[in-house]
Amino acid sequence: MTSEAFRDAGRRYREDPSKFSDKERVRMYALFKQATSGDCSVEVPAYVALLKGAGYASWRQLAGVPREEAERCYIELVRSRDPSFAASSPPQRASSETVRLRMSDAVRDMDDAEISAPVAGRSREELVKLVESLRAQVRRLSVGHVVKEGELTRFRETMTGRDWASRWFEVVPGWLRCYRSRKRDLRLEVSLRQVVRVVAEDRGSILRVELKAPTGDDARASSKIAHLRSLRLAAVSDEDRDDWIASISSAVKAASAGDAGDQTPAPKVASELKKMKDRAAKLRPAHRVSRPSLLSTDAAEPQSYAGFVNLIGVIAVVTNLRTFMNEWRLIPLVAALFGDAEEGPPRSLGCARLFSPPWEVMAGGVVLAVAVLSSLVIELQAAGGRIAPHRANAAHVVACASSLVVPTALVATAPARPALHAAWLFAVVVAWMKHVSWAHTNTILRTNRDDDDLDDDEYPRNLTLRDLRRFYAYPTLVYQTSYPRSHRVRKRWLSKRIFELLVVVALMVLIVTQFVAPTVLSVRALDNPAVVLERLFALAIPNIGVWLLVFVAVFELWLSILAEATRFGDRLFYRDWWNASKMDEYWRHWNLPVHNWLLRHVFFPVLDLGLPKPAAMFAVFFVSASLHELLVSGSCHVLNLWVFAAMLAQMPLIALTNFLADKIPSKSRLGNVLFWISFCVIGQPLCIMIYTHQFVAVHAAEDGGTTTFRDDSAPAAAAAADYYYGGGSNVSGPVPLVANTSAFMGTHEL
């Protein structure tokens, strides 16, 4: 039974392994295995020996060392690298001297240590031959003979459309490999035995590698790319393209003739390695290093703000266009010919409602907590073998569904409180996404542990209430057993961000109450296109202001405050979405926490089912559209699927912007301007206007009235809207905040 100090030391090591050198990591592995499992007497497969040869060799050097001694030495090593760590028991250096001597011998002999391989029933000659073959295999897999390497631009289908991306390619005997960059982060690996031919296309310096369906070992090693039938690659010139065609063709001939037969991995080893790689891809951490926010003062590299410059231009055009439309209607000749487009002053919603405590929020919070804790109990039972895996998975589905459906149903049956319900449903959706990520990730960890004889020290040690509580406090939606952490909490920095958040929220309330709400309520009906268009332009400017303030409040301030308070290291919550020239760039860069969650728990699971990327992309947008519709319709108690349809419409809009991006020069700003106009000038204001008027129409009858607006609020609402936009009101100044709010809102929350 391990001590609390030993478990705490292991947790601190997993939080920041970068504090330890490579040799110290091997030492930590050996000490941990010796302290938890005793002497190394297990036989491991050859492919495991390839990956952990040094670790197993170091572990074998500790044969005979008591577990208590290994545990003490492990704690001392963590203490030497983490001064803030205070173990419950004092260090005992003298008692661990034997371990230190053994470890120094293991580190000194590490480079010459043979790969640990199964020894039962094998002669010395067989073992020597096995070691030599495995070492040769490692050299071939890690280095190999590179026929050609260089940078090519690959045409690819991404999660949100089609694009050309720069990649680093290399041709080795038997394989064509694609890396993200020169850092050799492997993205794609194609067996040359799948290549049918390599041809040059007519236009540009483009070559096409035509593939056939993989069979046999290639099918097992290439299950993720089984749907690929061709690769379109663009070289820098025609000469470079011809050189690539010649290199790939010669390597294909060599592979077909069997010259590269000894270069390919053994079938068993290759399939096992591919299986391990696929499992690792499913659990690939979204947070790997500590990174500052892009707009933070801690950012090391300057950012481009060209997108905001384009936004300023869009605002100037919309403001002047709206002014022109307003003045054009005031020309006497035009007024005489066409009449006044306005049908009269707005009236306020008469919907007095007695205040009642938000019991639906309280009950929903209890249900949410019970559902999350039940998942922890379910996973503990499944990890201990007391529940069958399929029953545990079904129970997780029920618990996750309950954490979203029950709170939403309680809100739907309660009186409408748009502001309160919008905030509460937002919190419910965030908690549900965390719940799904926790259950899904632990299910994968449990499955990997059952399918493999490798010891995974992270599971089930992570199934604690403390670990679950920390995950729900972290500003992330993707569960990992460990995260990058900062060293301390900067209290002065945290105080500044809290003050900035209060200022931003106050500005949001001011703009909404003084400009957004009066503008929306100044239109009694949506059947007059001229009035709707003019009000749409009038609403666009304050809507952009509120939207940018929401972005700053949530992604730059609130999430950074949570990260600082919890010492969460990875604070890159967004990328430069303001420079997006295509809609798919915006959706990838705008909200990284949700983007990472959709990749991990929707996109890749759909691909694992064997479906193509377009189907996975549709699943992503379907889930996103459903959640957006829940947030808007649930808070307004109006279900008309406008937001759902608008989100699904992003898919053809992505295809359109990708098509335009291919036609527009790369340095043109037209794509970015189209993004701002379609999203901020037309899309969001139109949705706000539609849902507000439907909310007014649906809930006016609840107050016993037949009219939607009240005449007594017309001067206040019209003055607040026209003061800023120059709409012809006879008001000499802005309407006071409190008086204006009570006038057009009555006692109803908006």
Outline of the structure:
With 750 residues, the protein is of the alpha+beta class.
Please explain how this structure is put together.
The protein has 750 residues and is an alpha+beta fold. Among the domains are: 4-137, Acyl-CoA Binding Protein, CATH 1.20.80; 144-266, Pleckstrin-homology domain (PH domain)/Phosphotyrosine-binding domain (PTB) (PH-domain like, Roll); 358-413 and 431-483, no CATH class; 580-589 and 600-700, no CATH class. Helices cover 59% and strands 7% of the residues. The protein has helices at residues 4-15, 22-37, 46-60, 67-81, 97-108, 124-142, 217-221, 238-256, 267-282, 306-329, 332-338, 359-383, 389-413, 418-451, 465-473, 491-521, 529-566, 583-589, 592-608, 613-636, 642-648, 650-663, 670-700, 714-725, 737-745, and strands at residues 148-158, 161-172, 175-179, 186-191, 195-200, 206-211, 230-234. Strands 4-3-2-1-7-6-5 form a seven-stranded antiparallel sheet. It is globular. Residues 87-118, 219-223, 259-270, 340-354 and 705-750 have low confidence and may be disordered. One of its GO terms (biological process) is triglyceride biosynthetic process. This is diacylglycerol O-acyltransferase. Its EC number is 2.3.1.20.
